[in-house]
């Protein structure tokens, strides 16, 4: 099959990527709900421990007995550490910031992805991807303006989250030839072990209610499903091509923020978010034209 007739990689990867965004947005909303009454360490630990319980039997059953073995262990550990760092920064920021606006700041990640895709992956980003990333950055600056709901020191955590998330995505792409079940397992393992070391400092926090206990379990399920679909999507398309569609997550975050917390962005923040979304849609249009499909 010639390049002209080969299906665009987005046709196989985009549905998986959209599902990943929905599950991960649901994860964020559930975490913000729990952070109102529970310690940050407990919420992060439940997110990873729950994911570990969900994905380990699935990974072993689906990937076979050799799924836990890899010759690229340092890369798996580095990737999983970036995910843990991104989670700590994001959940920490959610304690103080509205869900939709906090999510919008996290979309600095595409700028970092475009800037780092060449040194990390050897993938050169065309000018349109640079333009889209810069436009998204301008949108984030509008949301982050002085006087806004997110003009808060916690916004620095979201910027750190964006950088860690970009590195996580790039390393996921670098491991695209690995068994996705292996990647999923190490994502859960590193986070679970790392956060478990901090659990002794939460002594006396008390047991959650039955409802909150169910929500803690839901965190792990949503994380496992979200990262499974994310890994499968990155195995089918370049990370710089998929990243603009992560802006759809902002729509889910806005909806959850309104339904669960009664929070809606103001007009200027809405403008900034529209700029961010528009930059992603413009890039999607460019990519479609570029391949002539």
In words, what does this structure look like?
The protein is mainly α and 293 residues long. The chain has one domain. It has helices at 10-35, 40-63, 73-94, 99-105, 109-121, 127-143, 155-174, 180-196, 210-234, 239-242, 248-261, 267-291. The protein is globular, with a radius of gyration of 19 Å. It starts with 9 loop residues before the first helix and ends with a helix.
Summarize the structure.
The protein is mostly helical. It is built from twelve helices and no strands.
How many domains make up the 3D coordinates? 1
Report the uncertain regions.
Answer: none
Structural class: mainly alpha
N-to-C span: 15 Å
List the helices and strands and how they pair.
Elements lengths: L9 H26 L4 H24 L9 H22 L4 H7 L3 H13 L5 H17 L11 H20 L5 H17 L13 H25 L4 H4 L5 H14 L5 H25 L2
Helix pairs in contact: 1-2, 1-9, 1-11, 2-8, 2-9, 3-7, 3-8, 4-11, 5-6, 5-7, 6-12, 8-9
What features would you highlight for this structure?
293 residues, mainly alpha
């Amino acid at each position: 099959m010639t390049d002209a007739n080969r299906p665009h990689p987005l046709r196989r990867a985009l549905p998986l990527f959209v599902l990943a965004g929905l599950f991960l947005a649901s994860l964020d909303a559930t975490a913000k709900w729990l952070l109102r009454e529970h310690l940050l360490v407990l919420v992060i630990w439940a997110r990873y421990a729950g994911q570990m319980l969900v994905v380990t039997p699935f990974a072993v059953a689906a990937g076979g007995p050799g799924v836990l073995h890899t010759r690229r262990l340092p890369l798996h550990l580095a990737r999983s550490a970036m995910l843990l760092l991104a989670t700590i920064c994001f959940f920490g920021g959610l304690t103080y910031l509205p869900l939709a606006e906090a999510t919008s700041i996290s979309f600095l990640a595409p700028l970092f992805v475009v800037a780092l895709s060449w040194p990390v992956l050897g993938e050169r980003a065309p000018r349109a991807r640079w333009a889209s990333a810069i436009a998204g950055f301008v949108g984030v600056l509008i949301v982050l303006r002085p006087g806004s709901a997110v003009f808060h020191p916690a916004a620095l955590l979201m910027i750190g989250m964006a950088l860690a998330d970009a590195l996580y995505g790039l390393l996921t792409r670098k491991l695209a030839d690995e068994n996705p079940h292996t990647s999923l397992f190490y994502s859960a393992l590193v986070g679970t072990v790392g956060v478990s070391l901090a659990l002794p400092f939460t002594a006396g926090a008390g047991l959650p209610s039955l409802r909150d206990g169910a929500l803690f379990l839901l965190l792990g399920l949503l994380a496992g499903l979200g990262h499974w679909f994310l890994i499968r999507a990155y195995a089918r398309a370049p990370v710089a091509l998929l990243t603009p569609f992560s802006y759809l997550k902002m729509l889910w975050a806005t909806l959850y923020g309104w339904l669960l917390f009664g929070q809606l962005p103001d007009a200027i923040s809405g403008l900034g978010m529209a700029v961010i979304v528009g930059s992603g849609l413009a890039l999607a249009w460019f990519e479609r034209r570029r391949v002539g499909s």
